[in-house]
Amino acid sequence: MEFNWYVIRVISGQEKKIKGYIEAELSRDKLSHYVNQILIPMEKYIQLKDGKKISKERNYFPGYILVEAQLEGEVLPTIRAVNGVVGFLGNKDRPDPMRPSEVNRILGRVDAINESGGQLEVPFLVGDRVKVTDGAFNGLIGTIEEINEERKKLKVIVKIFERSTPMELSYTQVEKEN
């Protein structure tokens, strides 16, 4: 019998705890050899806080856990009975395994994000007032007019000698004004 990937729906925000419960139950019932691996796909992202980049992780699919298993005998009922498990995706009696292309796409996407160092979360909105923290115009206050997520740049309008002047700044050169 071969191992297939399945998707388990769980209570969102409790994925790590429920993964631990599943592993403990399978071990207690001596069914661990039917499960190759249990994954919570995580992605790294970078958040700007006070002008500094902070690397964080978040669940790529909140409310879901991936499991590579043989759902033979008591494995399926054991996993379904774990506290916090809502159920499997697919047929009620027999869960549908994921297609290999789906698994490769999900795992490949998460790996690619993690290898690239994460995605930068844009902490700014058009119209936000920001203070320039780096460069020749350090200390000036301006308003965001445009956000270019690809280049990680902002178009900020600042007043220099009572004239509105556009400036192109990176995310790390400004901070939100309080």
What is the element layout, followed by pairings?
Layout: E1 4-10, H1 15-28, E2 35-39, E3 42-49, E4 52-59, E5 64-69, H2 75-80, E6 85-88, H3 100-115, E7 119-120, E8 129-132, E9 141-148, E10 153-160, E11 163-170, E12 174-176
Parallel strand pairs: 3-7
Antiparallel strand pairs: 1-5, 1-6, 2-5, 3-4, 8-9, 8-12, 9-10, 10-11
Q: Provide the CATH superfamily of the largest domain.
A: NusG, N-terminal domain
User: Could you tell me the number of beta strands?
Assistant: 12
Which outline best applies?
A: elongated
Q: What is the H/E string?
A: EHEEEEHEHEEEEEE
Characterize the structure shown.
By secondary structure, the chain is an alpha+beta fold. It has two domains: 4-120, NusG, N-terminal domain (Alpha-Beta Plaits); 129-176, SH3 type barrels, CATH 2.30.30.30. It contains three helices and twelve strands; from the N terminus they run E-H-E-E-E-E-H-E-H-E-E-E-E-E-E. The protein has helices at residues 15-28, 75-80, 100-115, and strands spanning 4-10, 35-39, 42-49, 52-59, 64-69, 85-88, 119-120, 129-132, 141-148, 153-160, 163-170, 174-176. It has a five-stranded antiparallel beta sheet, with no helix packed on it. A four-stranded antiparallel beta sheet has the order 2-5-1-6, with helices on one face. A hairpin with a 2-residue loop joins strand 10 (153-160) and strand 11. The chain is elongated and about 80 Å long. It starts with a strand and ends with a strand.
What is shown here, in short?
The protein has 178 residues and is α+β, with helices and mostly antiparallel strands. It is 20% helix and 40% strand. It is elongated and about 80 Å long.
